[in-house]
Amino acid sequence: STSFTSTSTVSAETNQKIFSKDDNTLSKSITEIYENISQTEKTLIRKLRLRDLLYYAIVQAFPACGLYVVGSSLNGFGNETSDMDLCLVLTNGELDQRTAAVQFLRIVEEILSFLPVIKEQTLITAKVPILRIKFRGPFSDMVVDLNANNSVAVRNTHLLCYYAFFDWRVRPLVTVIKEWAKQNDI
Question: CB within 8 A of 20, min separation 6: which ones?
Answer without folding.
Answer: none
